[in-house]
Specification:
The chain is built from 13 helices and 15 strands. The chain has about 450 residues and is an alpha+beta fold. It has 2 domains: about 150 residues, Chloramphenicol Acetyltransferase (2-Layer Sandwich), CATH 3.30.559; about 270 residues, 2-Layer Sandwich (Chloramphenicol Acetyltransferase). The strands form 3 sheets. The chain has a 6-stranded mixed beta sheet with strand order 5-6-7-2-13-12, with helices on both faces. Strands 8-15-14-11-9-10 form a 6-stranded mixed beta sheet, with helices on both faces. A 3-stranded antiparallel beta sheet has the order 1-4-3, with no helix packed on it. Helix 9 crosses helix 10, helix 10 crosses helix 11 and helix 10 crosses helix 13. Pathway: Lipid metabolism; Glycerolipid metabolism; triacylglycerol biosynthesis.
């Protein structure tokens, strides 16, 4: 029995019919060269033999003394979680994205472990797909990426590889004392050496500086300053998923031409795509849209610990020139990173929590529409750098499928894989009609920057 943390409980509390709180991932594979035509059916038969399910995939929700806890499901029905399916003819990417859109709209049964694994055949010429969805209370986006990556390998000849639900459990980094999650959270907040309390002077100073900057510059991307937008309406439970790959060398070419980062160019692409989409809907706000962007603050090659901050960045969607927009985004992000440069990890966490508190209150209650802190989430989750294989099949692409919420109808998440950048857009089908056109606008945005740079 393992109590849920307050954050994990929040994902359960937020969930409702129009707001499923699971994350997902779509992977595309090509058959091994020597594989028979029924390779996927044979693969499905092998996967069904992995009946020993390992944590966290063998855990279901239960309630003890009124509090949610994870307990082992002693009657787990693998057929419910592992599903072998086929796309309708003609089996194009369009049919695959429609399948994911529909599946990502469905709530999962809380009486069972909160995950599904879909093995999908009938896609194009000797290709198949895997779509995995897991409740956000069970894993976060980074953990999900690590689990999927652990399932893969860099050896095209390796076979009999277990699926994600049968992987050896990863060793826990923290000792679980089994105590109530509330008290563990209080202990973390206070810190063994008073680290959290020691952040108050710096956090207060930076928060005051942020507010003062906002007073001096009306366009400053700070708290309370995101414009009203169709992106921030109440949503339905129906989803539209759109995905596209872009060559990383193209994006790096633009980076080199303008002295920016990959993340800057990606944000500029998203900004231009949003501008085009909203203009065609006759719904582009006069003021620039604001994005909530997780950014890496790591200054070395270490892998331990969390060194990630969240910034609020203007997308400058009121600017006509794509190059000017890119450079202004670059300056905004650089200024935000410079703000964090002299702050400790604890100070960054607490500063972020305070600046995003108005957004959280509005998202949870809808009672403060004027406290529109940001309009859209643009998130970048690092993926494998080398070509990956699974049971001899080459992984051609991996696309994140995230969460849309009331007053946050669009989530733009991307991941890196080898020499590709994979975009996954998830949105409310009714609130944001024809969302798939955003893929064309993303391509147009990149071409505009390449053309301006003479590439």
């Amino acid at each position: 029995m393992k109590p849920l943390s307050p954050t994990d409980q929040l994902f359960l509390w937020l969930e409702k019919r129009q707001q499923p709180m699971h994350v997902g991932g779509l992977q595309l594979f090509s058959f091994p060269d020597d594989a028979p035509d029924d390779y996927v059916a044979q693969l499905a038969d092998r996967l069904r033999q992995y009946t020993k399910v390992t944590p966290p995939f063998n855990q279901r929700l239960d309630y003890r003394f009124g509090q949610p806890v994870w307990v082992e499901d002693e009657h787990l029905d693998l057929e419910h979680h592992f599903r072998f399916e086929a796309l309708p003819t003609p089996g194009r990417v369009r049919e695959l994205l429609s399948f994911v859109s529909a599946e990502h709209s469905h709530l999962m049964d809380r009486e069972r472990p909160l995950w599904e694994f879909h093995l999908i055949e009938g896609l194009g010429e000797r290709q198949f797909a895997v779509y995995i969805k897991v409740h956000h209370a069970l894993v976060d986006g980074v953990s999900a990426m690590r689990m999927v990556t652990q399932m893969l390998c860099q050896d095209t000849g390796e076979r009999d590889m277990p699926p994600i639900w049968a992987m050896p459990p990863r060793p826990s980094r923290e000792k679980d004392d089994g105590g109530p999650s509330l008290w563990r959270s209080v202990g973390h907040l206070l810190g063994e050496s008073g680290k959290q309390l020691g952040t108050v002077p710096t956090v207060a100073r930076e928060l005051l500086r942020t507010i003062n900057d906002a007073r001096k510059d009306p366009a400053y991307s700070s708290i309370f300053h995101a414009p009203r937008s169709i992106l921030n309406q109440k949503i339905t439970g129906s989803r539209r998923f759109a995905a596209q790959s872009y060559c990383l060398s193209r994006i790096k070419g633009v980076c080199k031409a303008y002295g920016t980062t990959v993340n800057d160019v990606v944000m500029a692409m998203c900004a231009s795509a949003l501008r085009s989409y909203l203009m065609n809907q006759d719904a582009l706000p006069e003021k620039p849209l604001i994005a909530m962007v997780p950014v890496s603050l790591r200054k070395d090659n270490s892998s331990g610990g969390n060194q990630v901050g969240v910034i609020l960045a203007s997308l400058h969607t009121d600017v006509t020139s794509p190059v000017t927009r890119l450079m202004q985004i670059h300056e905004d992000v650089k200024a935000a990173k410079d703000r964090y440069a002299h702050m400790s990890a604890e100070e960054i966490i607490n500063y972020t929590a305070l600046t995003l508190a108005p957004a959280a209150f509005n998202l949870l209650t809808g009672m403060a529409p004027k406290w529109q802190t940001f309009n859209v989430v643009i998130s970048n989750v690092p993926g494998p750098r080398e070509t990956c294989y699974w049971n001899g099949a080459t992984m051609d692409g991996m696309y994140p499928v995230s969460i849309a919420m009331d007053r946050l109808a669009l989530n733009m998440t991307l991941t890196s894989y080898g020499d590709q950048v994979e975009f996954g857009l998830i949105g409310c089908r009714r609130t944001l009609p024809s969302l798939q056109r955003m893929l064309d606008y993303l391509e147009k945005a990149l071409v505009e920057l390449e053309t301006a740079a003479g590439l």
